[in-house]
Amino acid sequence: MYPLVIVLMRERGLQSILNNIEQTFADEPLYKTAEEKAGHLLYFIIKDHPFTDGNKRIGSFMFLLYLKSQNIAIKLNENGLVALALLVAESDPKQKEMIVRLIVNLLIN
To answer: φ, ψ for residue 57 (rounded to 5)?
Structure first.
């Protein structure tokens, strides 16, 4: 593929992720809380690789930015965030719901 086509595909990937966390079904949000949306945002960016490089770093940054925009206290230090990003990256896709629940629990507890 040509580099421009890859860039455009990746841009749509990020837009798709951002739309995904806001989606609804029967006028009800699929992800009901901001913590669920944040958890899915981190998971999707890391696992779906919308960027050529730096998906864990960018995903972590966007996760923190989203938390700040929602006035959610950030309870993770740098080492905790790195460990969480690596856990997401190395997780089996079959464990998605468990990983997202872990992220949500880290935010609400």
So the answer is: -65, -50
Give the residue among 23, 50, 31 at the shortest CA–CA distance from 107.
Answer: 31
Q: The tokens of 83 are what?
A: 């460990």
Strand partners, 19: none
Which pLDDT belongs to residue 11? Answer: 61
Domains of the chain, each with CATH number or no CATH: 3-108 (1.20.120)
- Mean pLDDT, 10 residues at a time, the chain of 109 residues: 50 84 92 96 95 93 96 93 98 97 93
Alpha helix stretches (DSSP H) within 26-69: 34-48, 55-69
- How many CB atoms lie under 10 A from the CB of residue 15? 11
Q: How far apart are CA 102 and CA 12, in angstroms?
A: 28
